[in-house]
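For the sake of transparency, this paper describes our internal protein records without simplification. The remainder of this section carries one protein's record, kept here as part of the documentation:
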Amino acid sequence: MALGLLRRRRSRSASGAGPSISVPLPPDAGGFGFEVVDPLGQPMGGAEVTVTALDSHRVATRGTTDPHGYFIATLPPGSYSVMTMAEGLSPSRENLDIAAGVALPPVRIALQPARQLELPTAGTWLFDPPHTAIRFIAKHVGMAHVHGRFTRFQGGIRVAPNMADSHVSVRIDASSITTGNNTRDDHLRSADFLDVERYPYIDFTSTRFAHRGGSKWTLHGTLTMHGTSRSIGLDTTYLGTVNGGYDQELRCAALAKAELHREDYTLNWRSMLARGIAVVGPTVQLELDVQAMYRTHDTPTPPE
């Protein structure tokens, strides 16, 4: 369901409770609102909010908080993860359950100063596909955004003693693209778009890690798609390490984003539009939500 900024009304009860939010709900939808503040309790405008469906790992909506620190949305019923991030502050992740016809009470999220995260242990880290998502968002010409993801991929991170010398590689099965519409997916696999019979894989190989401060990095590398290679930079937020998962193995997490220009990869949307083919627009937002497991002799094999 499309998301818009909704009407907000602040009111205080006689007991001095915090602000309440009035949300006009579309049919078969629920609503929620967050108030995001900085470590001093001041409204945090411009914080990035990403809402992901827990069952499909699909991004349901995303945006930024308004100048008063609010983010308000309506969503179909279901369970969601909400990631809130701002430069120099630690990310916050909240889970929520949306029910039709219900507007959840507003929640205040206080972002804290980013702690110096311990960098991953040097060695090989393998992507855990069930806990990793490769997603994209494209603007459909004349219509709403198209959300999709790739379901089959493999890759890993070779962490060097000097993090700047580390290396990432990802291989994506291009035919595993899915947008929730079989006709559209078949068209995206065709010669008009990805041409998966001739170019079955999409590959990214990093060339260097550049530290931007705090938990922010840029992964410079080469993306090869549709038989064409281009240099790109993945804006990456490192989320730290933890012992957990199948056998309490050591794992790390990161969120990486990039904007791709389709014509860089000889996918000529203007030509297809002139031929009457309904297409998505000239740019695509790519997002990798990664968990990787530290490789040892007894690292568990992720389930299919």
